[in-house]
Every structure is written in C-alpha cells, then in structure tokens.
Amino acid sequence: MANRREEERERLRQARKERESGQAKSEKRRLFAVYGGAGLIGLLVVAGVVALIASSGGDSAGAAHINQASGSTNGVEPDQRAGTPPPKVKVTNLEQAAKQADCDLRLKLEDEGHTHIAPTAQTPDYKTSPPTSGNHAESPYQEADGAYTEMPGEIFLVHSLEHGRMQIQYSPDLPEEDQLALKGLYETMYAGALLFPNENMDYEVAATTWTNLLGCPEYKGDITLDAIRDFGKATWGRYGGEPVNAFSLKGPTPLEPES
C-alpha cells in the first residue's frame, strides 16, 4: 500500500512538472510576441521620424526649398518667408525684357577656371560682381539649391554655378515687398536655383549662371521679373561643364517654371 501511495505521489509530481514546463514555454512565447511587436512598433516609429525629418529638412526645408542632396548649406539659414505669387510673364524675349528693365545683360563671359580648392581657402579675385565663374570650393561644399537669409560664401556659390544652377540675388536694402516678389518668383522655379541677398554687388537685383550675368541697377517690378525668367530659360543648365542633373532636381526649374 505504501509503495502504491509513493508511486501515486511521484506520478502527480511528474504531472505537475510537465504542466509547469508547458506554462513556462507558453509564457516565454507570449513575451517574445509582446517584445517582438513592441520592437516592430519602435522600428516603425523611428522610420517615421526619419522619414519626417527627411521630408521636412533633407530634401526641401519648407518654403526655402533647401535641397541638401545638391550640396551644403554651409551654415547659412534658410529663408522660410512666403513669397508673393508673380504675374504671368508678358515679355518673353530676353534682350527686350532686359532693355525694358534697364538691366545689364552680359552673356558668354570669360571662363575664369574650374579648379577645386579647399573650403577654407582665400576667395579668388573674381572678375565680375556677382561672380559668374572661376575656381571654387571642392565638393560637397557647393551651395545647395534653396533660398537663404544671408549671402553664402562666393567660393561655394561659384561651384553651384558650375553645375548649371541659376542664382537670383538682391540688395539687402531692397524693400521687403520687393524681396517677397522675388521670393515668389523663385518659388515657381526653385529646383536648380538659389535666392539670397548680396551686399557686395552694385546692382539692386541680379541673376547669374556660369559665364552669364543679368544685372539690374534698379528693381522695376514685373518687367524685372520677366527679365529674370527669360534669363533662366536662355541660360539655366547650359553652361559650366557639369551636368545640372548630377544632383537631384525636385520641383519646377528656371527652364520649366510653374508660371
């Protein structure tokens, strides 16, 4: 009898161990599922944050349209102001528009060189103001496409010109209303283009591409905007020796503006 009771107790102990072992395995599987789901959610959250950062700042920083894939900001703050939408273009002939706007149109200027120099090097003595060609900072310090609140360094800007970019520049003393008119024009052609104030030039408004310059001593409203648009269509992406599409272009270009 004692032996049977002992055998029964042993059988119950073994049954209990098997139940406990099964419960432990089930709990482990449940924890793995919970942690795995939490990990997946965490990865999705991180991916979402990265995507948000990329969409907001990596490719296009709001109204400034900073395209970091095209170069570097070099520490210059973006211009996030909303521009005034420009009127429809009226004068489509570049020479005619430049003449009516009293702008100095200089095409196919001397090519001053393509040598890459260190970003800390002394600025070359460019022969035009604003500069239109010459030795410039090495990659990746070419100024990224976008609108800026201050003038980037000339050695960064000239490298951007080499890649077919157009740069729209204005005197910091230009009235706010006129600055926003230029900003609105830029917003119709921001891919492969830059906008910034320039306190060094003698013009009130200017546009440049590699070896080409449109310099306007006075901003005269719509006709000046027409001259800039015509200048972009005639020269954007065609000079500099480096392909304009070597860096991604996202949005309207001076060759094919939105209006």
Description of the structure:
This protein has 259 residues and is α/β, with parallel strands linked by helices. The chain has five helices and eight strands. The strands form two sheets. The protein has a six-stranded mixed β-sheet with strand order 1-8-7-5-6-4. It has a two-stranded parallel ribbon with strand order 2-3. The termini are far apart.
Entry summary:
This protein has 259 residues and is of the alpha/beta class.
Report the uncertain regions. 31-60
Order of helices and strands: HHEEEEHEHEEEH
Please outline the major beta sheet.
6 strands, mixed
Q: Output the strand order for the largest sheet.
A: 1-8-7-5-6-4
Tell me what portion of residues adopts beta-strand conformation: 5-15%
What is the molecular shape? globular
Radius of gyration: 31 Å
Mean pLDDT: 85
Number of helices: 5
Strand segment tally: 8
Specify the helix fraction band.
Answer: 25-40%
Distance between the termini: 103 Å
Alpha-beta classification: alpha/beta
